[in-house]
Amino acid sequence: MNIAKLKIRGTIKRLFKSYPRELLDRWGDVIQDEAIRTIEPYRVIMSYVSLPNEVPTFKILKKILEDNKILLVPKMVGEDIIPVRIESLDELSPGAFNVLEPYSSEAYDTKDLEAIIVPGIAFNTKLHRIGHGKGHFDRFIKLL
Questions:
Q1: Measured between alpha carbons, how far is residue 34 from residues 132, 134, 144 in Å?
Q2: What residue numbers bound the domain in which 19 lies?
Q3: CATH number at residue 120
Q4: Which of 36, 56, 82, 117 is in Cβ range 3.0-4.6 Å of 47 for a Cys bridge?
């Protein structure tokens, strides 16, 4: 594991915990609103399902479903992510790492995938991502 990434990850996590919940909620709303505007032209979208310590995604997920777009969410199978289509948030239940995942394990063909919303602890100016350290999304994206 890269020591610099570990330090950055630790620093960002400490900073995140130091901010008041109200401020984090406000930032989360701003980020979700911007994401919704950004993905507006796309029809097939994949997004992570957020944990309490991540940028929230539920507003985004609901909007994708309300707009009758195709929403794919990750399901962990071993160390790999498979994209699964859901048509309702009721199709999610706690899975690996206590992340909400779809009940189904039926992989959706990613050939029509137009946008992916990925979790990230930090991003640099070149938009390289530092995630939680397991590399699941990085491996998935390389397969596309």
A1: 23, 27, 25
A2: 3-142
A3: 3.40.50.10420
A4: 117
